[in-house]
Amino acid sequence: MHIPDGFLDTKTWASLSAVSAGFVALSVVRANRKLGEKHVPLMGIMSAFIFSTQMLNFPVAGGTSGHFMGAVLAAVLLGPFAGTLIMSIVLVVQCLMFADGGITALGANIFNMGVVGSLSGYLIYFLLSSVIKGKPGKLIGVFVASWASIVLASGACALELAFSGTIALNIALPAMAGVHMIIGIGEALITTAVLTLILAVRPDLLELTKI
User: Fold this and answer.
1) What secondary structure does DSSP assign to 15-41, as a single string?
2) CA angle 146, 5, 112 (to 5 degrees)
3) Sequential DSSP letters for 195-209
4) What DSSP state is assigned to residue 100?
5) Helix (H) or strand (E) holding 66
6) Residue 115 CB: number of other CB atoms within 10 A?
7) Would the pTM of this model clear 0.85, i.e. be above it?
8) Which residues of the chain have pLDDT under 70?
9) Smallest Cα–Cα separation from 80: which of 31, 36, 119, 135?
10) Whole-number mean pLDDT of the chain?
């Protein structure tokens, strides 16, 4: 889902860079207000975990591959704006050190995977875990939210490519959403497995103040 340079026109990548910079600035402000002693090491661990697991690809139909995104896991543990901040850090490092995603497309990639992934995923998780009480609600909520976050982020990516004139929306949207509906199953399984482990050994981590 990492968009490389040259796929977005100037108006699209410049607009998304400004929007993403605004969300990152808001996330920093909220983190400064709510950051506690337990948040700092957990944010570091989550950044390292997401960065490393994004390097592992799993095969998808048609010769394509997918990888863990991690936005919902970070958002559920630390809050949606902390998730945006963590994803932004991971994407900047990937872009500048590993050429994974273009520099001009960095704002778009942060918007898709950081902002859309974290905020939409957290909202879905919050709603489902509020309706379905207890551990089942948390696990069902995180499974659905993780799957949906991948599909919504890929849909945003398709819209950006279409707005840039790179590819027609009626081709980009079904192609991106179709593949990422499959990738989202892997995302949901990994996220649910990690949350199941956390609930078993450190359920207190879910009680941290959300940023």
Assistant:
1) HHHHHHHHHHHHHHHHHHHH--TTHHH
2) 20
3) HHHHHHH-GGGGGSP
4) -
5) strand 65-67
6) 28
7) yes
8) 57-66
9) 119
10) 89
Is beta strand 65-67 parallel, antiparallel or unpaired with respect to 57-59? antiparallel
Q: Is residue 155 within a helix (H) or strand (E), and if so which, with residue range?
A: helix 134-163
Tokens at 187, concatenated:
């995302």
Write the CA distances from 193 to 21, 129, 131, 196, integer angstroms: 32, 16, 21, 5
Burial class (CB in 10 A: 0-12, 13-18, 19+), 60: middle
CA atoms lying within 13 Å on the CB side of residue 35: 14
Give the C-alpha separation, 137 to 110, whole Å: 29
- CA–CA distance, 101 with 44 (Å, rounded to integer): 22
Q: What is the pLDDT of residue 144?
A: 97
DSSP 68-98: ---HHHHHHHH-HHHHHHHHHHHHHHHHHHH
**Longest Cα pair distance anywhere in the chain, in angstroms?**
49
